[in-house]
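Researcher: Here's a chain I'd like modeled. Treat it as a single chain, no partners, no ligands.
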Amino acid sequence: MTLKEDLSNKVREYAKEPWDEIPDGYVVPAPEDLTFGNTGRRLSACILYADICGSTAMVDSLSDTQAAEYYKAYLHCAAKLIKRNGGEITAYDGDRVMAVFLGDAKEDRAVNAAMELSYAVSKIINPEFSTVYATLHRDLRHTVGIDASTVLASKTGVRIDSDLVWVGPAANYAAKLNSFDGLDTSYPIRVTEEVYKALSTNCLIGSAGELMWEGPYSNFDPRRHYRSRHYQIIG
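Model: Modeled as a single isolated chain. Structure tokens:
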């Protein structure tokens, strides 16, 4: 069998094979929990994407080792804070991390992780690198997009090189909220209206009684979004 025939057969199989019954899921499945066929789990999830803003300019202007240090510092802080807030990391992609939050108060916990990450960028990462690199330091900026919806988790890949693919509005819009034309990068945290409406008062109102969000904005209807520059102090 030629490679073309092999690929055609597999694509035809995906298109024609009936899906098994898709149960609701309450934990993030592992790839080994699913088959390469048409199987999956549906979850009510809040998805977070966090990445470095302007990473292309960073790698163009810094040595590869210094840029790697920024990447490692950012992703380390993001991972620790996501897990601290009950999220599960599902993918790393260059300077970006994806996480899934499930269960009670999932929107609050995702937003709290984003605000703690903004604190880490402003009060930990940039000051530490500035101390080490002085005039060679380039302020790191970041963005976080968060959306919530029902998503389908299914297995993709080949044999041992497998992973989960996440299909549903939250997976797409959380990623889109990280960057698009005309977005003010001084507001690093962006959440869809679905997430905003689910937030508790603690994630809406600041310590001085001010609303911490601006919006809604309609850059990609029908999913309007809100933006914030606030951060949450890490104790």
